[in-house]
Design brief:
single chain; alpha/beta; Leucine Aminopeptidase, subunit E, domain 1; Aminopeptidase; nine-stranded mixed sheet; 14 helices; about 20% strand; binds ligand BES; binds zinc ion; binds manganese (II) ion; aminopeptidase activity; cytoplasm; manganese
Length: about 500
């Protein structure tokens, strides 16, 4: 099963100036105010949605209790004057002064999720923000079903919406926005697919092959180090974590050479994290299929930078390993030598992410990038500190703040966290240069970042994103996010890369 390479990821997206005759559902936006709900936008599309049709719709929607609250859904039969349309779905946008791109993305996503089994949807949300509406529909309609067979395969009324037409006021309106939204949403879906592919099917060698296949198709330079090359190169962190598994580790390096400025992306690719000899409890261990979400995001973002043709060079360095307990696994107390020579005492084999990332960060530094961004489902402490939807952003002060700000601008909620210097001494080891964990659990997310900081070359602007919670949704669907892989932080990464390219 090659879920990543060959399936169609989401609905067809197209712009349209007219509402076609076979429209199943027209999706409109509804803002809320003291005077009741209002259709938004109110200044566009008067030829297809005239004053009398709007008045009739508002009457009908009001009669069944529509208020325009954020993400509220109200479906009514299409007014007689609205030819070719079967029904109208009003999706709430909340207060008119708070309708930003993220609200439109979420509302479109909620609408898309409620429209399974629908062939053709037309929407006016494109009049508010075409790109955000397109991303929201595409990502809201995302499902992952390659492992559903026979009886459990989606029925026709459960299949995601097939085609979404975005209503536009003029022929050229939103052409570049749609192209970008389509590529961005596909990249997010690619990251989700990788995360959602079970660990039985996505192990280091397979992950490397799939990443290389996509990268070659996008015209990137690809290098894959297998276990022998890792041994020869001295990648002790990746080898140490991978050696408990019958499925050997890999290090994948993808380069999109688009310009003089250089950004390196590093992503944690633990295809499954049992904890190793410091084994995790059985409860919820299955969620550790998501422990390669950082890798998925940096691979998808690098492919996206290439597809967008950004004037910048992006190199992804992605260590991949399966953290298993076995007679060949590393032990608590073992000392390994990271790529570049630093020795580390492995106190806890479940703190494996930082070991594979350290090798990759040192390797990334050899390409002399001006910026290094690493992404990892690194610590449970991230969830304790910030919850399930807020990535922790650490690193060098200015760049950390810039990445966190951009992350919030794109609706991925990154929040800057400090690296208190007093925590560093807790990573001292009696036998090696460093210990992989502190002897206490305070500030676990920060302590992991301080470990990584030891491997970041002097003078490089660095950001570390801990997405342990945000990369994988174990709760119910919300907005444009279903259960499972979320694709966070692909949109942050591409926005940061674009921001650097535009400097
Ligand atoms: N992959 C986990 C972190 C994680 C936890 C991700 C929950 C997603 C959800 C990581 O490898 C890990 O096990 N971290 C340990 C570190 C500890 C041993 C210092 C943790 O957070 O408990
Ligand atoms: Zn892990
Ligand atoms: Mn772990």
């Amino acid at each position: 099963m090659t879920a990543v390479a060959d399936r169609s990821l989401g609905p067809e997206l197209a712009r349209t100036e007219t509402i076609g005759p076979d429209t199943d559902v027209l999706v409109i936006g509804l803002t809320s105010s003291e005077n009741g709900p209002a259709i938004a936008p109110d200044d566009l599309f008067s030829d297809v949605l005239g004053a009398d049709i709007r008045a009739e719709l508002l009457d009908q929607l009001g009669a069944v209790g529509a208020k325009g609250k954020p993400e509220e859904l109200t479906r009514v039969p299409a007014p007689a004057g609205l030819e070719g349309v079967t029904s109208v779905l009003a999706v709430g946008l909340g207060s008119p002064d708070k309708v930003d791109a993220e609200q439109i993305r979420r509302s479109a996503g909620v609408a898309a999720r409620s429209l399974s089994g629908t062939e053709l949807v037309v929407t006016t949300l494109s009049g508010l923000d075409l790109g955000a509406a397109a991303e929201g529909f595409y990502l809201g309609a995302y499902t992952f079903t390659p492992f559903k067979s026979g009886k459990s395969a989606p029925k026709s009324d459960e299949r995601p919406v097939v085609r979404v037409e975005l209503l536009v006021p003029e022929p050229e309106f939103g052409t570049t926005e749609l192209l970008r939204a389509q590529l961005v949403a596909e990249a997010v879906a690619t990251a989700r697919d990788f995360v959602n592919t079970p660990p039985s099917h996505l192990f280091p060698a397979e992950f490397a092959t799939r990443a290389a296949t996509l990268a070659e198709a996008a015209g990137l330079e690809v290098e894959v180090l297998d276990e022998n090359a890792l041994e020869a190169g001295g990648y002790g962190g990746v080898l140490g974590v991978g050696k408990g598994s019958s499925r050997p580790p890999r290090l994948v390096r993808l380069t999109y050479a688009g310009g003089d400025k250089k950004v390196a992306l590093v992503g944690k690719g633990v295809t499954f994290d049992t904890g190793g000899i410091s084994i995790k409890p059985a409860q919820n261990m299955e969620n550790m299929t998501s422990d390669m979400a950082g890798a998925a995001a940096v691979i998808a973002a690098t492919l996206l930078a290439a597809r967008l043709g950004l004037p910048i060079t992006v190199t992804a360095v992605v260590p991949m390993a399966e953290n298993m307990p076995s007679s060949t696994a590393q032990r608590p107390g073992d000392v390994l030598t990271q790529y570049g020579g630093t020795t580390v005492e492995v106190i806890n084999t479940d703190a494996e992410g930082r070991l594979i990332l350290a090798d990759a960060i040192v390797r990334a530094g050899e390409d002399s990038p001006e910026y290094i961004i690493d992404v990892a489902t690194l610590t449970g402490a991230q969830l304790v500190a910030l919850g399930t939807r807020t990535p922790g952003v650490m690193g060098t002060d200015d760049f950390r703040d810039r990445v966190a700000r951009i992350s919030r601008e794109v609706g991925e909620n990154g929040w800057a966290m400090p690296l208190p210097t007093e925590l560093r001494a807790d990573l001292n080891s009696k036998v090696a240069d460093l210990a992989n964990v502190a002897p206490h659990r305070w500030g676990g997310m920060l302590s992991a970042a301080l470990f990584l900081k030891e491997f970041v070359p002097e003078g490089v602007q660095w950001a570390h994103l801990d997405v342990a919670g945000p990369a994988y949704n174990t709760g119910g669907p919300f907005g444009y996010v279903g259960k499972g892989g979320t694709g966070v932080p692909v949109r942050t990464l591409i926005a940061v890369i674009e921001d650097i390219a535009a400097e």
